[in-house]
Amino acid sequence: MSDRSVFVFSEELLNYRFSSHHPFNQMRLKLTLDLLRKIGAIDEEHIVAPRMATDEELHLVHDPNFVNAVKLAGQGKLKGDSAEGYGLGTEDTPIFANMHEASALLVGGTLTAVDYVMTGKANHALHLGGGLHHGFRGKASGFCIYNDSSVAIKYLQEKYNARVLYVDTDAHHGDGVQWSFYDDPNVCTLSIHETGRYLFPGTGNVNERGQGKGYGYSFNIPVDAFTEDESWLDAYRNALMEVAEFFKPDVILTQNGADAHYLDPLTHLSSTMKIYREIPKLAHEVAHKYCGGKWIAVGGGGYDIWRVVPRAWSLIWLEMIENSNCYGSLPHEWIEEWKDQAPVELPQEWDDPEDLYPPIPRKPEITEKNAQTVEKALYPIRSNKKSETV
């Protein structure tokens, strides 16, 4: 296995664009890559271009009729009633020109990352254009047309016979991936997200544990609104380490939505850059402890594309290459490059100020509730451990 890390990117990934005012904006890919370049953490030799996923690969997860509908929609040939039935042309997932090609490229980017890691060309691979975890077999949902993670997991199973641990730290529940493998004991899904009582998609309860042979292989940690760093990280550390030890995967695929941050406009959590330092560190540790280093990471949500996403996503790459050049001031050149385009004042530091937000009144109650949620989520693992020691 190579100790090389690869960064999957091309300008064409920015073609996945619903409209100029839609919150999902792949400009964040350029902002992140430019930040990494400005600190000298990435060279052209690290960057590999995504390929287009074939129809056959998309059909590993998606209904052929749905794929055909996406093609027709992107050509302006799908009628309104039919589009709505496929989740297309909605407020969340509007139709845009050539949407099939743009979406298939995002899926192909994740498959490119998979092949680099599984063939030994790289130890770790990062594809920030991916992470579209809400797509279903026959329906688009929540800004997601095709579900690149689900396709990649099925591809990992079919081509490499791998047991896959999927870890989702997006503030929104990774529903599309969970339901794709809900009855499969060779895929373990772990999602830590804001409770669905307040947030799309409304799923991801603790009692969603899988079904049939897959029962006991789905784990959900729905944290309370306004959860802060310490409580979020306690939940993540405990869940990830215990689930990884239980499942012992061949490869880890992490979805790295950056929308649990306090500044994100679509969610209600109160985390800071502190969690985005720890998320990749722990994933990296799991990859080397159980998977021979095989770690594939994708992007996901993240709607403050100026102040949050570039810093959070840069930390994944810096962890992959074991570069600690991410403290103190952000490069002046990066701020100067983008400040005139940004509608908000750009951050000056890698870390957030201590007074980023006012004190949360219910902090002790939220912390206790989250601890109870983790206990419920991990109860099957912990109870089995106890019975084995009796």
Classify the beta-strand content into a percent band: 5-15%
CATH topology: Arginase, Chain A
Largest sheet, spatial ordering of strands = 2-1-3-8-7-4-5-6
Q: What's the total number of strands?
A: 8
Whole-angstrom Rg: 20 Å
**What is the percent of helical residues?**
25-40%
Pathway: Ketone degradation; acetoin degradation
Protein name: Acetoin utilization protein AcuC
Family: Belongs to the histone deacetylase family.
Domain Histone deacetylase: 22-317
Task: Record keyword descriptors for this entry.
globular; eight-stranded parallel sheet; single chain; Arginase, Chain A; 390 residues; alpha/beta; 39% helix
Describe the structure.
- The N and C termini lie far apart (40 Å).
- The chain is built from 13 helices and eight strands.
- The longest helix has 20 residues, at 99-118.
- The protein has one domain: Histone deacetylase domain (Arginase, Chain A, 3-Layer(aba) Sandwich).
- 53% of the residues are buried.
- Strand 4 (164-168), helix 7 (175-180) and strand 5 (187-194) form a beta-alpha-beta unit.
- It has an eight-stranded parallel sheet with strand order 2-1-3-8-7-4-5-6, sandwiched between helices.
- It has 390 residues and is of the alpha/beta class.
- Helix 5 packs across helix 6 (148-160), helix 8 runs parallel beside helix 9 and helix 9 (273-290) packs parallel to helix 10 (309-320).
- The protein has helices at 27-38, 55-58, 64-74, 80-85, 99-118, 148-160, 175-180, 229-247, 273-290, 309-320, 332-338, 363-377, 379-389, and strands spanning 5-8, 47-48, 124-127, 164-168, 187-194, 218-223, 251-255, 295-298.
- Helix content is 39%, strand content 10%.
